[in-house]
Amino acid sequence: MDAARCMGCTGFRIAVRHILPNVFAPALVLSTLYVGQAILNAAALSFLGLGAVPPEPEWGLILSQGRSYLRDAWWISTFPGLAIMVSVLSINLLGDGLRDALDPRLKV
C-alpha cells in the first residue's frame, strides 16, 4: 500500500487493486460458514416455536411436530433432521474447498 501510495495511486485504486483481491477469498469462505450457521439457528428457533407459524414448512417445525409421532412414524423427524445435517455439512465443505482453492498460502 505504501509503495502504491508513493507512486501516486488514489485511495480507490489502492482499495480495488490491492486490498479487495486479498479480502475476497476470506470473505467468501466466511459467508459460506455463516450460511450454515444461519440454517441451524433458523431450525433451532422454529423447533422451539419461535420461528414460522404452523402452515409454513420449516425443518425445525417439522422436527418439533414429529416428536410426538417418533415411536410410530420415525421418518417424520428423521428425514428433516438428515436434511438439516446434509445441507449444513455440504455448505461447510463447500466453504472448506473454497478456502483450499483460494488461499494462496496453501498452494505449493
Give a short summary of the structure.
With 108 residues, the protein is mainly alpha-helical.
Describe this protein's structure.
- This protein has one domain (26-102).
- The protein contains four helices and no strands.
- The chain has helices at 2-6, 11-47, 59-66, 75-102.
Structural class: mainly alpha
Measured between the Cα atoms of the first and last residue, the distance is 26 Å
**Number of beta-strand segments:** 0
- How can the largest sheet be summarized? none
Please tell me the total number of domains. Answer: 1
Which word captures the global form?
elongated
- The helix/strand series, from N terminus to C terminus, equals HHHH
**How large is the share of residues in beta strands?**
under 5%
Number of helices: 4
Task: Point out poorly predicted stretches.
Answer: none
Mean pLDDT score: 87
Question: Over all CA atoms, what is the radius of gyration?
Answer: 22 Å
Helix content: over 70%
